């Protein structure tokens, strides 16, 4: 059970973060949106968000093997240049190891125009907010239905 229900305890704050989420989901192409959300959530150890975004990807028709390989995306050849650039940027922004290196930024800027890049950054920042809220409140995904 989570420590508190943010949507009830701080409804206005929750709505503000949800507003960023709504904007991001409408302004970043769907598969890239879910890829960055899943990867950032993996890095942040957010079980709630990993479960949610992996499930949403599966429901939208993304192959299971692709979803399953997000944690090792550099090791497989089925991510497009745009997806690879988005995943690398998501990792750098999520981890912030002293800033986003120029080579990572430049690679993303080669495959995304300025507006796309700005919207991608907002989406990455938003999932990091959600991850921190869900991890801090110990939100858990619903357990999977077990075959009997």
Detailed description of the structure:
With 148 residues, the protein is mostly helical. The chain has a single domain, classed as AhpD-like, CATH 1.20.1290. Helix content is 69%, strand content 0%. It starts with 5 loop residues before the first helix and ends in a 12-residue tail after the last helix. Keywords: Oxidoreductase, Peroxidase.
List strands and helices in order, with pairings.
Blueprint (H helix, E strand, L loop, with lengths): L5 H4 L1 H17 L2 H15 L2 H13 L4 H5 L12 H15 L6 H10 L2 H23 L12
Helix pairs in contact: 2-8, 3-4, 3-6, 3-8, 6-7, 6-8
GO molecular function: peroxiredoxin activity
Protein name: Alkylhydroperoxidase AhpD family core domain-containing protein
Keywords: Oxidoreductase, Peroxidase
Low-confidence stretches at least 5 residues in length (pLDDT < 50)?
A: none
Please summarize the sheet with the most strands. none
Residues in helix, % = 55-70%
- Cα(first) to Cα(last) distance is 25 Å
What general form does the structure show? Answer: globular
**How many whole angstroms does the radius of gyration measure?**
16 Å
N-to-C SSE string, H for helix and E for strand: HHHHHHHH
Strand-pairing-aware structural class: mainly alpha
Percentage of β-strand residues:
under 5%
The pLDDT mean sits at 91
CATH superfamily: AhpD-like
Q: How many domains comprise the coordinates? A: 1
CATH topology: the name is: AhpD-like
Count all strands and give the number.
Answer: 0
CATH architecture: Up-down Bundle
CATH class: Mainly Alpha
Count of runs of 4 or more consecutive helical residues: 8
GO molecular function: peroxiredoxin activity
Domain Carboxymuconolactone decarboxylase-like: 33-91
InterPro entries: AhpD-like, AhpD_core, CMD-like
Organism: Microlunatus soli
């Amino acid at each position: 059970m989570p420590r508190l229900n943010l949507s009830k305890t701080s409804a206005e704050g929750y709505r503000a973060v949800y507003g960023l989420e709504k904007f991001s989901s409408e302004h970043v192409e769907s598969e890239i949106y879910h890829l960055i959300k899943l990867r950032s959530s993996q890095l942040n150890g957010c079980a709630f968000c990993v479960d949610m975004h992996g499930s949403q990807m599966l429901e939208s028709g993304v192959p299971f093997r692709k979803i399953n390989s997000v944690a090792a995306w550099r090791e497989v050849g089925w991510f497009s240049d745009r997806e690879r650039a988005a995943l690398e940027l998501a990792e750098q922004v999520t981890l912030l190891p002293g800033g986003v290196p120029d080579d990572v930024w430049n690679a993303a800027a080669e495959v995304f125009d300025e507006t796309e890049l700005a919207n991608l950054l907002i989406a990455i920042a938003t999932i990091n907010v959600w991850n921190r809220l869900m991890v801090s409140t110990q939100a858990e995904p619903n357990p999977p239905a077990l075959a009997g």
